[in-house]
Amino acid sequence: MTEAGTAASSAATTLPEPVRQRVLTLAAQALGQLSATDIPPPLRRFASFAPAKRAKLSASVLGPILETDEHFRRMAAFQVRREHPALGDAVAEGVPVPTADPVEVAALAYLLRPDNWEEHVAAAAQVPVETPRADEEAVSRLSDQLDQARTETRQVRERLREQVNELKAENVTLRRKLNDARQRISGLQSELEQRTIEAATADERVEAARNEVDRELRKLRARITELEAIEHAARRTAGQERELASTRTRLLLDTVLEAASGLRRELALPPGGDLRPADTVAGTEPEAAPHGRTAPDDDPALFDELLSLPQVHLIIDGYNVTKTAWPNSPLHSQRQRLVTALGALVAQRRIEVTVVFDGAELSGPVQLNPPRGVRVRFSPPGVIADEVIRQLVRAEPPGRPIVVVSTDREVAESIITLGARSLSATSLISRIARS
């Protein structure tokens, strides 16, 4: 070790206690600002401590290192000079600062090591130290202050304890109220959920009821519409039946009246029905002429005689006649020729004529222009013309003369049992040919 280092070590060991404490405080503050490479390993664990804690805990290690590690002392002195630039520069340059604290100057001089640093340490050692009496007075004063502080602390502690007890009691009350509030909230939430479920269920029931009412209403409306349609159809049917019955009755009455008038003319009956004086004169009366005759079904004279009957209805098996008269012509031509010829017959005789064609022969819509007074019917699907002819005969009132023209033996036999007269197609063809 050099003489300067020996002298420094010797001086350091004789540092006054206030100077030593201030040196350790300044070095501990500088320790927190040095890099890890500049800090000796034994001090590195103290670098992260707070300044006060660092100075207290590192004092036993920091003092010897400052005495032995010149590099660390210089790095610490550099940081201390940066923290105390005015006083540090004055001490380093040897400029006296009369107003400065000798202890502070001695501490900075020890770290900065100017040429007269030992003088500053010696000057700090000459600072008078308080006498024991002053220390006793200070201790007494501090004891009084400590007792007063303890009393105040005890009072404050009691007040704080009371406040803590009050706060604990208030906390218990608040906790109880909070638990009650939570229970009420939980109950309200449960009730709300139940009410929500009930409301949703009620909405579903209402919607289901509304749908059921709508269904029933639609059913009732459909039933009302159906009943109205049935009522309308019943009224229309009843009206048609009344009109048909009236027509049948009027037609039968006209037939009876005309038949009676024709019979009166045929029998040459006198206009009056009472006995005349001349009727009492005896004599032989001439025989009456026969009132009818028999003739074959194809006799044109018989055909004319039947057409002269009052209110006669002539029903014709259409294709039975046309295929007999014009077998080589197309069906539409056959139909038109027949209805045209019947139109001339209706104009001559003023009779009712109905022509029935078999609908099974049709391949599409029929284009036909029947003359006035000639009724044309086609049998519906699945029904033959023979059945339509029978329906026409059944529809007429009993007693009306009906003449059916058809060479079909089955048709002839069936309509005779219904009270109609049957003629062959040849008789109609012959009559048409004479027109």
UniProtKB/TrEMBL annotation:
Start and end residues of each stretch annotated as Disordered: 267-300
Keywords for this protein: Coiled coil
Coiled-coil regions listed in the entry: 139-237
Keyword Secreted on entry: no
InterPro entries according to UniProt: YacP-like (IPR010298)
Pfam families: NYN_YacP (PF05991)
Superkingdom as given in the UniProt entry: Bacteria
Entry protein name: Putative RNA-binding protein with PIN domain
Organism (species): Kribbella antiqua
